[in-house]
Amino acid sequence: MQNKCLLQWTVAGLISTGLFTACQQEKKDYAAHDAIIKNIDTTVKVGDDFFQYANGGWLKKNPIPGAYSSWGIGNVVREELRDQLKKISEDALKANAAKGTNTQKIGDFYYTGMDSARIEKQGLQPLQPELSRIEQIKDLPGLMAEFAHLSTIGVGTPIGTYVGQDAKNSSKQLLQLWQTGIGLPNRDYYFNNDELSAKVRTDYQRQHLPALFKLGGMADAEATQASNKTYALEKFLADSSRKLENLRDPYRNYNKMPLAALSKLTPEINWKDLFEQMGYKGVDTVIVGQPEYYRAVSKALKTYSIADWKQYLRKNLLAEASPYLSKPFSDEDFRFHGSVLSGRKEQLPRWKRVLDTENNLMGEVLGQLFVKEYFPEKTKERYVKLVENMRTAFRERIAKLDWMSEETKKKAYQKLAKINPKVGYPDKWKDFSDLEIDRDAYVLNVFRAATFWHKRDAAKLGKPVDRTEWDMTPQTYNAYYNPSNNEIVLPAAQFMIPGAKDENVDDAVVYGYAAASTIGHEMTHGFDDTGRQFDADGNLKAWWTPQDSVKFTQHAQVLINQFNNFTVHGLHVNGKATQGENIADLGGIVIGLDAFKKTEQYKEGKSINGFTPLQRFFLGYSLGWLGQQRKENLMNQVLTNEHAPGFLRVNGPFADVAEFYEAFHIKKGDKMWLDPDKRARIW
Ligand SMILES: [Zn+2]
Q1: Which of 131, 306, 496, 535 has the smallest CB count inside 10 Å?
Q2: What value does the mean pLDDT take over residues 310-320?
């Protein structure tokens, strides 16, 4: 793990101690080991497609490998990490550690996943007890009990529960219900008329579902019938599921009700029994995200027969288990999810698949070992400082806003001051002692891990909120903002630049790559269309004056319109659904610029490899989105994801920023040009 911020503090230190020549020496290294210059494609006109200009050289030299649906900087970081995790897992296996230790769990999980001969020999056998449970369902109470059981082993049912903070009282944990129950990635796949959606749903209904049923032991005709029924049932649930953009409004998706009201809404469901069977104790109030969805579930329990529901559950079980079963199962899983949905050409080698699963299920166990080696305490301190520079710049920016009243500004300062940064890795690691890992069957280890997480979640009910907890592991190339805790969570891996030593990365690139695209982005989430509705203590509460709310919405609309106009393979980007991310990107860039303008490098203004500090800032930001995607993957993202495709997260917001025009002499007539009155300006 390298720290790309090293130079920033080193230079400051050298200047303050008067060792300026050493600093100059360091600067020569910037040019020799430049992390951005080699990515540039000089055949592209800067003002026409900046993303392609900044990254096109790399993209040409790094086509997407067959086993991937996309390839970019995040993948390169993850490849490096996988090599480390492999070593950790192999060492754990060799250690022959005592039962119940983390080392035993890592070693045995890896062992069962890698023993392909045994997995082939076992075939469907590890799943038999679960299949016969489903077979024995006779009536509605039996069906509900099976919903409860399957959800504790990580298999999908129409009931989606989790324990989370009450949006209006962030110090309380409540049981929450959210829409779920469908097999395709998003409800729109069941209805949309675009080319990809039609292709995906036809394959799902006519090939994937029958294949799963046949692998589970059904004859052809029966499998076809079961597929049609299951598809119809899912389509019914999808029809009452909200679209992506309608899941954003925190008030519309907050429907707190006592159990009695929930039972009235869904007369077919005995929630008291169900929650008890799921291990949720003493539930009297729940928050229902989408009441109309649960009304539809209740209706479906009456409309569809027990036999239909059994087939639906059989399919869910087989689909969930397939990646961990023998080759015919994992091949079909790959054919549909990897190839049809994402455009991948071949499967990842087994060891990579096993490690990805291990990392998903036991990530913090691996993370503890990872940070020890790659993210020392002093590195953490540097990033904590960068966060504070961004916080200062953000405050100054709010002060200068001409559209916001003093009254709202005062509360915005309070909220900003209270943002809790979590940097690198958690102060307190999760306790995995209740996780059981055995050597019997790979798929059963996956189920046991799901049970561990389910029980851990259920145990939070009625207990105080643990605000030290992380929802991402330190080895994740990503970051998040959690409105209920008013916190930004910045995993160590997110600060890595593959192949670059930190001492060779100049401030301009660091401020673009880490401060703007990650830290500033996450901070701005606290002030995006949803985040802004939560107050300094993480409670959903109107703290804006109504006039300021209206003005915010007007400013955001400019950005929504801008993104609605972008098309990808004929599909329009969903400006409304992606607005939170686009607001965060734009905020991150302008706040990052303000913070960068305070550095010595910016003030000196010396070029490195022919690029001014300001130009390098924008190139550094673009580095965060270095990557390309297959057509299927890109279209899938546009349909199902709140994040616009990477290239638009560069070209979109840059066209709104005056310094970008200034830095690269963008002129009217260039493709990226926007008239000044058309440019979005929020934070
Ligand atoms: Zn984001």
Answers
A1: 306
A2: 98
